[in-house]
Backbone:
């Protein structure tokens, strides 16, 4: 070692010490601001839910909306619209938004790739192919019927991706998982396309499922998805600490006492539960899972514990908010929530990228 | 030309003003790939409904293979194969460039929105303007370009950072795909199908025009790509500098300052400042230890590589890609320790150049997609294909009978709307769906959505007293919701044979309380059908004709081979 190296090293140390003070200060400020941020997100979510109940294609005075809950009249069409149409879709939107936000956060953490979205494990492609098969081969037409097919497709696809990614030496590394997911997704989307090109009627039905919509979801759908999402959310939030460690690298995580392989497997289960259910319930919506965690990282910082909470609040706020706007933007028709999330979320995301210092890719 | 070194490692050929460095492995791989491409290309021309042998293919390519083979090869299969090769090259190169710039192995050009933009342009042309295939290709290129400009402008903020470029691209890309989705859900199914074929991508029906378009784009843009080592290499600022990419000025100045400081430092060999100056690889044409020239590299790939010649009296260079730190005192050249410390801020020039390149690639990709998949505009099929499944039809035949015609009617699909208007009740219709395009009055009414993707709330907005549709109307949840809220819903049967129209008309008329008008309309329609059906086929004037009924839909080129019957001359 020459003196040059020593000098460089000592300079680096000096620089590190100099920099450490402002760094700590920034972290302190951020951690003080975090609860306020979370509270703000919660307030936004509350407002969005109220708007979702009060606003829609049919104009209903706000008094009737309140009455529908306080003094329900089963013969009043306005009350029925609020209770039977708007309430279920708001609840489904809340559940699915939470699932997508958390699923995206887990996916980005476990692959250590900020460009990862839930679709990377093949979940969306598997669900889409299963739905096309259900429409084409089995003549399934109801949302509730499609839910089970989509769940099965998502689960099978992600298991296949995991097996493909973990055969051979080295086991299931994030990059191999991502690559095998991308490969299987391409294959399944090709099959999906083939079926929709063969059969016009299937294409006609599939094109609306593929966009993603909250319309026509009733409380029965809520009942069939709620437990999957709760289970997935519990797993995801429980994984926050080990995922923080994995963020330092596999070796560092192992040194800190985290079982890396097991954490990844559990994270995979959480992702399938969350994203598979979300896709099954309302169709493939990639945008929320990709962008919400990214945006939250810029707002609440990289700590997974806070990030998960932020995503669990911001995901539903984005989804329900976009659904509400979609209901009134093209009156008397509706614009599907999948279109609205990208149409509103896209520019908002660009704005955020320009404003905030984003995490480097 | 003199061969300087021919070890197992690179083979360096040097002349005064240029040099070539050939790595045997690269040469081998590129040659193998080129051979494989050639073989697969020939094979793709051989197989098909009209099989050809290798000899026939080769003869036909060079214009000496007989009329049939020449027609098939030169008009149909060769342009298709060549287009495939060129488009594949364009997409592969753009992917490689993108993954280098984004420094992310998951990157692909479509993630930053060029492809979504091109798709939005194409789908807009198909669904809104019903454009010809040429217009669709133009729409795709225009869409890709607009997206590229938008991404560039929005990502520019006191310079361009690669990460911001990618993130802005993702945002814009999602917005563009939202446009595609919106158009797809609002269009007629025939247009949707055409768009779906385009979005899938097909090489069917490619002609020499497509070859010319893509070939021209490649000819102009490909040299730009391979001439830029910053992007043709695995990334990393340090290596980029070593490989001859131009150093951004600020980093360079800082580097020089750092070198001056170090030169003054104690205990170090005094170094002249211009020693670092010479590190500006590729710009310094006098320093003979770091000469970089544009060279024609292996497999026709143009690269700019550093040509590290041994300095007199120094140790021989160990390998082309050692990390700088390892041979700090290797002698042939100083590593660039200061670069790592000084240059991490976004090196604007490099990024801007990379961005410009990226747009070139984007253009290439959209050219590729613009001519890679489009559909000849087809005339609309005059009949709607029967699409309902028998099981669904059997389960849902609620048949309400009403005496008095309701005041506010909403027909759920185009057929029903047409019948309601034909029954003279058009003035009571308050809204129609997307598929109701005839008569024009029905088209002009407010829309409730599309027959297969109805929503209850927009329908309820019109306070209908009767909602009437066929069993295509859906999704079932929306119909259930309407019934739950108490709106009368009538679903009429639609047998898919010659009795269908009469049955449908009578059922609708009964539901609307005008059975007599329905009977008259149904009778006239049925008599028109009967008049068109010949009673005895052998007496018909068409008895001697041989008829091929062709239902041509979609993009594929259909070929019919055969001879004219001799009897008819």
Residues:
């Amino acid at each position: 070692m020459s003196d040059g190296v020593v000098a460089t090293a000592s300079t680096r140390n000096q620089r590190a010490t100099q920099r450490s003070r402002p760094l700590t200060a920034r972290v302190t400020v951020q951690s003080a601001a975090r609860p306020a941020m979370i509270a703000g997100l919660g307030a936004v979510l509350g407002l969005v839910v109220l708007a979702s109940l009060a606003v829609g294609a049919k104009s209903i005075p706000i008094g009737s909306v309140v009455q529908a809950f306080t003094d329900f009249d089963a013969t009043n069409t306005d009350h029925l619209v609020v209770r039977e149409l708007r309430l279920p879709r708001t609840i489904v939107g809340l559940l699915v938004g939470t699932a997508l936000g958390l699923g995206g956060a887990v996916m980005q953490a476990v692959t250590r790739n900020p460009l990862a979205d839930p679709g990377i494990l093949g979940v969306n492609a598997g669900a889409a192919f299963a739905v096309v098969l259900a429409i084409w081969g089995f003549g399934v037409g109801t949302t509730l019927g499609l839910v089970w097919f989509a769940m099965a497709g998502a689960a099978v696809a992600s298991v296949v991706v995991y097996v493909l990614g973990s055969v051979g030496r080295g086991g299931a590394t994030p990059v191999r998982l991502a690559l095998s997911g991308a490969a299987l997704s391409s294959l399944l989307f090709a099959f999906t396309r083939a079926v929709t090109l063969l059969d016009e009627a299937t294409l006609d039905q599939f094109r609306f499922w593929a966009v993603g919509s909250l319309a026509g979801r009733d409380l029965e759908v809520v009942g069939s998805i709620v437990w999957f999402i709760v289970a997935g959310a519990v797993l995801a939030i429980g994984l926050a600490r080990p995922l923080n460690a994995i963020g330092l690298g596999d070796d560092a995580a192992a040194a800190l006492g985290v079982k890396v392989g097991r954490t990844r497997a559990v994270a995979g289960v959480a992702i399938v539960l969350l994203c598979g259910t979300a896709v099954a319930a309302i169709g493939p919506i990639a945008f929320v899972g990709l962008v919400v965690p990214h945006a939250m990282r810029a707002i609440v910082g990289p700590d997974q514990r806070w990030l998960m909470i932020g995503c669990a609040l911001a995901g539903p706020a984005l989804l329900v908010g976009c659904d509400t706007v979609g209901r009134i933007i093209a009156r008397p028709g509706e614009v599907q929530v999948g279109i609205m999330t990208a149409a509103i979320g896209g520019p908002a995301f660009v704005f955020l990228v320009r404003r905030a210092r984003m995490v480097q890719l | 030309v003199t061969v300087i070194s021919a070890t197992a490692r690179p083979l360096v050929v040097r002349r005064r003003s240029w040099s070539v460095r050939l790595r045997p492995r690269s040469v081998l791989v590129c040659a193998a790939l080129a051979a494989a491409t050639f073989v697969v290309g020939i094979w793709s021309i051989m197989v098909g409904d009209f099989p050809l042998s290798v000899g026939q293919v080769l003869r036909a390519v060079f214009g000496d293979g007989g009329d049939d083979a020449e027609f098939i090869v030169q008009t149909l299969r060769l342009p298709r194969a060549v287009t495939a090769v060129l488009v594949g090259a364009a997409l592969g190169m753009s992917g490689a460039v993108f993954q280098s710039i984004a420094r992310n192995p998951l990157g692909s050009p479509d993630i930053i929105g060029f492809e979504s933009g091109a798709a939005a342009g194409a789908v807009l042309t198909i669904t809104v303007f019903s454009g010809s295939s040429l217009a669709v290709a133009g729409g795709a290129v225009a869409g890709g370009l607009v997206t590229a400009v938008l991404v560039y402008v929005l990502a520019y903020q006191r310079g361009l950072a690669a990460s911001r470029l990618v993130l802005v691209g993702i945002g814009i890309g999602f917005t563009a795909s939202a446009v595609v989705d919106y158009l797809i859900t609002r269009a007629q199914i025939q247009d949707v199908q055409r768009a779906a074929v385009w979005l899938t991508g097909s090489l069917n029906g490619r002609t020499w025009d497509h070859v010319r378009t893509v070939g021209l784009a490649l000819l102009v843009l490909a040299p730009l790509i391979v001439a830029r080592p910053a992007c043709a290499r695995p990334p990393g600022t340090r290596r980029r500098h070593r490989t001859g990419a131009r150093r951004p000025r600020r980093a360079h100045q800082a580097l020089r300052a750092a070198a001056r400081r170090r030169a003054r430092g104690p205990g170090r060999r005094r170094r002249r400042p211009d020693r670092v100056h010479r590190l500006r690889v590729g710009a310094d044409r006098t320093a003979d230890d770091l000469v970089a020239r544009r060279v024609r590299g292996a497999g026709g790939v143009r690269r700019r590589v550093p040509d590290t010649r041994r300095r007199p009296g120094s140790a021989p260079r160990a390998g082309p890609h050692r990390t700088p730190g390892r041979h700090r005192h290797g002698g042939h050249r100083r590593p660039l320790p200061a670069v790592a410390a000084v240059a991490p801020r976004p090196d604007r020039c490099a990024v801007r150049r990379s961005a410009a390149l990226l747009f070139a690639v984007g253009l290439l990709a959209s050219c590729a997609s613009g001519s890679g998949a489009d559909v000849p505009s087809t005339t609309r099929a005059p009949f709607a294909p029967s699409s309902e499944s028998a099981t669904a039809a059997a389960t849902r035949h609620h048949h309400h009978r009403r005496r008095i015609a309701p005041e506010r009617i909403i027909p759920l699909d185009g057929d029903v709307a047409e019948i309601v208007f034909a029954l003279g009740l058009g003035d009571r219709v308050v809204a129609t769906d997307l598929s109701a395009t005839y008569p024009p009055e029905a088209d002009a009414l407010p829309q409730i959505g599309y027959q297969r993707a109805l929503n209850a709330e927009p329908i309820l907005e019109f306070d209908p007293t009767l909602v009437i549709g066929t069993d295509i109307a859906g999704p079932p949840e929306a119909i259930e919701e309407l019934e739950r809220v108490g709106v009368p819903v009538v679903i009429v049967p639609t047998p898919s044979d010659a009795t269908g129209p009469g049955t449908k008309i009578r059922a609708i008329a009964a539901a609307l309380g005008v059975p007599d008008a329905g009977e008259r309309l149904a009778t006239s329609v049925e008599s028109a059908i009967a008049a068109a059906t010949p009673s005895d086929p052998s007496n018909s004037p068409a008895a001697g004709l041989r008829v091929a009924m062709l239902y041509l839909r979609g993009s594929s080129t259909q070929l019919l081979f055969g001879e004219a019957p001799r009897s008819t001359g």
In short: The radius of gyration of chain B is 34 Å.
